[in-house]
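Milestone M4 deliverable, item 7.
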Amino acid sequence: MSEGRRVVLDGIRRALGGGAGARAAELEARLRAHPPGPVPRRGQLDPRGRVALFVEMAELAAASVARLRSTDEVPDAVAEYLAQQNLPAALRLAPDPRVTNLPWNRRPILILKRGRSTGEDLVSLTPAFAGVAETGTLALVSGPQTPTTLNFLPETHLVLIEAGRIVGTFEEVWARLRQAYGEGTMPRTLNYITGPSRSADIEQTLQMGAHGPRRLHILLIDRDGPPPGP
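Output delivered:
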C-alpha cells in the first residue's frame, strides 16, 4: 500500500471512531431495529379520519373514488363506471382471489380476462396492499397473483382496497410489508401510485396517461363508514 493511500485510510478510520467494523455493527443494529424517522402529524389519525383523508387526497390527485359497503357491490360498481366513461364492458382481472372470487355472475355482460397484460387491455382491476392517508397513495406489490403490468399498461386502472388497509403514513406500509412477508423478505416490486399518470415535461403542458393509466378509479370497501353519496 502506498504511503498516501495509508494516510487517507487512517484518516477515514479515525473519523469513523473505532474503525469500519464498529461502524458496520452500529448500522446492522439500526437496520434490525427499524427505528422510525420523523412522521408527519397529518396522517396520525383514527381509522375514520385516515379513510376520510385518503379519499380527500386521492381525489385531489385526480383519482376517482367509489365507496362501497361490501365486495358484493364491486361488479355493479365496475359495470356502472365503465358505462359512465363510455368504455367497453371488458376488463382484465389480477388472478388474485380478492378479485376473481367476487360475484361477477351478477354482471354477465362483462367480458373478463385474467392474468398479466401485454398491452392490449383497456381496463384492469387489481387489489391494493395498502393505502396511505397522508397523500392518497396506493401501495401495490408484485407477485404471481398481482402482475405489475396490470398497474401500468391499461389506460384505465381500477384498484380494490379495504378501508382496514389504509394506514396513516408510508412508514406504516413498510412495517406491514415486513409483517406480511417476513423479516428480510420483500416482494420484487412495490409500486406507490398517487393518482393517474401525468407529465408536464413538454412546454409545461399537462398530459394525462404519459407513462401509465390516464384514469385511476378506486373501489373502497368501507363497511363501517357512512353510506355512499348520490
